[in-house]
Amino acid sequence: MKSPDHIRRGRAWALILTGAILYAPANLVPVMTMTIPGHHDKLTVWGGVVELYEVGLWPASVVVFLASICVPLFKLISIGLLLIMDGSPHYCLERTKVFRVIETIGTWSMVDIFLLSVLVAVGQMKLLASIEAQPGAIFFAGVLMCTIFATHNYDVRMIWRNSTR
Amino acid sequence: MPSRLHDSAPWRTCPDCDAPYRRHLLRPREKLVCRRCGVRLSSYQGGVSLQAILALAFTGLLLLLMANTSPIMTFDVAGRIQSNLVITGVQGLVQQGYGVLALLVFFCSILAPALYLLLLIYALVPLVLGMSWPGLGFSGRLILFLAPWNLVPVFIVACGIAVVRLELMGRVVWQSGALYALLLSVCCLVLGRIFPRERVEILLEEAR
What we know:
Order of helices and strands of chain B: EEEEEEHEEHHHHEHH
Number of domains of chain A: 1
Strand content of chain B: 5-15%
Structural class of chain A: mainly alpha
Number of helices of chain A: 6
Helix content of chain B: 55-70%
Oligomer: heterodimer
Number of strands of chain A: 3
Number of domains of chain B: 2
Helix content of chain A: 55-70%
Largest sheet of chain A: 3 strands, antiparallel
Number of strands of chain B: 9
Largest interface: A-B, 49 and 52 residues
Order of helices and strands of chain A: HEEHHHHEH
Distance between the termini of chain B: 35 Å
Distance between the termini of chain A: 27 Å
Strand order of the largest sheet of chain B: 8-7-9
Shape of chain A: elongated
């Protein structure tokens, strides 16, 4: 059985605020370290994007930028706006479309977490090459989970409850 | 000629806006769209049988098994070679003290796809055979819950990015597991596209 609207709304607000708070450390704290002889890199999400771009791998850089930086930010802002506009009879169709976009692109931010797991899996060569996860990844995963569960708690039908259409 | 209204069909509500609607008998290339919010309620599924979807789900399950037991890639640095399975990343994260991340990767890349495909098979087999099994309604709800957590396609994209990044440090060679995971991704995307949600919901209601 589904929870009443006000409880779902409250949960979505709590999750989106938590996600917004976690967004800063998720982007400022390193998510991984990459070590090869003579080189030790602590990479943040943004650092990973820049590194890929600087070595000429701009298609991969664009994918990581969109999935790891744009999508979570877009979700935080969009769900926040949907919650702020909750109860309004205006722009129902547009708000529904925004919600569908959020649902469709939402889980693509997991690219960075999967990337970390693949790199950690093969990057265990002690002195030759070593890749280790860092606490930033926990913050990043926290943002993803908050936005995913906020979307899950936001019932799109709430948009239409006060509509005149 | 316009589609005919399915007179005996009960009224249903749009999942996105609660507007009432009744099912129509759709013709090829036709789709039923909510007039209020524009969501696609159903589309013509005449060309896709439940048997075909079931076969695709079985194929997906087989590919999942192969993708999880074959190496994805090998990484060669100065003659030292390391290969990985999907689960190797999970183990690596656990060893580095990031159990929460490991759990997330395990759920989205292994457990959710496996449960999704198994439950799909569990729900489709009795529908194809025209019989009823216990727990069909529950499995139907679980399928809808698990579908967005089946992130094998995202995993494959991450593998692609990992390869270009690792090539800066050494030599990387794709292995058969990547091909199986890629085929599994295609299989899951096609299943998501052709899965006749409304038709299965109705059949599950009737089976209960």
